[in-house]
Amino acid sequence: MTDHATDVLVPPEWVAARLDEFVADDPAARLLEVDLDPSSYETGHIPGATKLDWKEDLQDSTAFDIPSVADFEALLGEIGITPESTVVVYGDMMNWFAGYGYWLLSYYGHADVRLLDGGRDGWLAEGYELTDEVPEFSPRSYTGASPNESIRVDRAEVETAMERGTSLVDVRTPEEYRGEVLAPPGWNEGVQRGGHIPGAVNVPWSQVVDADGRFKSEETIREIYREAGIDEEVVVYCRIGERSALTWFVLHELLGYESVRNYYGSWVEWGNTVGAPIERGRRAGIRGE
Amino acid sequence: MREFTFTIEYERGTDPIMDAFIDDPDAVARSLDGFVTEERFWRIERIAGSPATLDRIEDIRFDDDTCGESLTERDCEATRYHDVLERGEGRLVIYTYLDGISACESVHTLSGKHLPPGLVFETLRSENRHSWRVLMRSDAKVGVLYDELAARLREGLSFRMGHLRDADGWQRDSLASVSVAAEQRAALQAAVEDGYYETPRETTLDELADELDVPRSTLSYRLRQAESQLARRYVADDERDRWLR
């Protein structure tokens, strides 16, 4: 069981009880594995799960943006998903990139998408079955995707949001938030300037999951954001808008915040923008000092 | 070979081993750790400090209920083996072997999860800081390690980034772990900082003695004691000596 009264977050036993549906060619139920380290999938995955590579499949490196509607529809159709499919997303590292997969599906209006609580590690910890068999489903036609702009913001909208006093949540590490780390090691996500968007509070993405990768109880999470002084209207961001998608999931889907939007351009865009105001130093304020 | 360096800072009361260093600012420890697989690692740690600090660290290491490795809320469940390799005046060398560490969340396990096998770690503990140098064949996934480390530290621990670059050098300052009494260390440090060891000397014993507020004879004695200790340890640490005697 999860500690959350929502059907978008499903526990491992929920998936385990439906494995027959996930391995069947019938597109009613599909599993997607989205890992930070895409090679994890090859070491074994949940039966019926299709791998999506966040770099190859879930972003458009030429446009430096999320995939276009056409690419998104083609991708889902190819792996046997229809607009009516129940899609369960999971991944490594506490669902970090699976959360982004979930957000992207929601952004394009997929009706029934769920996140597996605990992700890949949670499944493994419960000792459930893994396979190295890569499923081959009949391609389907996926149409009707349409962007839901109420869950995404661009830079201009962030500026408007700042003026309106919208809460800004920076989910990067405290060192990046304070501006001490400009170029995170091993990532091609460096920026010209360190710091954060003025007024943003720092609530690192990992604070809402416990040691085994499952989301903390609704009450605990609600308290974390309450102490950080987050209002009902929120913009979340990180380095490139992926980890913040997981925070978007928490605020919007688990806690039911009225308006939560993910700033996809995130710090890579803001920190490199001529004239965009920044703030630095300030202690990481999870306790909402 | 690539190297990734960083430091983890501890608030008092968040880690029993680090508390010993916080309470004894003169104590330092250097370790060499080898990571055999994702399941196990070994470590040789040389600690210099007061006898009380060394006793304290030894007690913690041999107390099987104390983890001493984890960075997160979750304690390590490994099987621990420790042995004292050397115990002398002001120094202690402990060999450690941990088996079954995969459920633990230490620098070793998190590195093992994301970096290629064959890792070597050099670490330095002093006061509230535990500094790490991770040597690796490839840094392809070091970004994930950085994100996981920085994000998952339990409360009271904080991450300071060092650098990521080609590895260069090996145990250049192993002498720093030679035990020298605190007052001798202070004398040496002031002498070096003020240029007493430059040629020509940039300061005199009289000036240094004034600065440290000790009699000239006392300062002179402390420096000679420290120099002789360093010289003898340096020669004893020489490679030939270690292998041939």
Automatic annotation (TrEMBL), chain A:
Keywords: Repeat, Transferase. InterPro entries: Rhodanese-like_dom (IPR001763), Rhodanese-like_dom_sf (IPR036873), Thiosulfate_sulfurtransferase (IPR051126), Thiosulphate_STrfase_CS (IPR001307). CDD domains: TST_Repeat_1, TST_Repeat_2. It comes from the Archaea. It comes from Halococcus thailandensis JCM 13552. This is Thiosulfate sulfurtransferase. One of its GO terms (molecular function) is thiosulfate-cyanide sulfurtransferase activity. Residues 25-132, 162-279 form the Rhodanese domain.
From TrEMBL, chain B:
Residues 3-170 form the HVO-2928 N-terminal domain. It comes from the Archaea. Pfam families: HTH_10 (PF04967), HVO_2928_N (PF24281). InterPro entries: HTH_bacterioopsin, HVO_2928_N. Residues 183-231 form the HTH bat-type domain. Keywords: Transcription, Transcription regulation. The keyword Repressor does not apply. Signal peptide: none annotated. This is Bacterio-opsin activator HTH domain protein. It comes from Halococcus thailandensis JCM 13552.
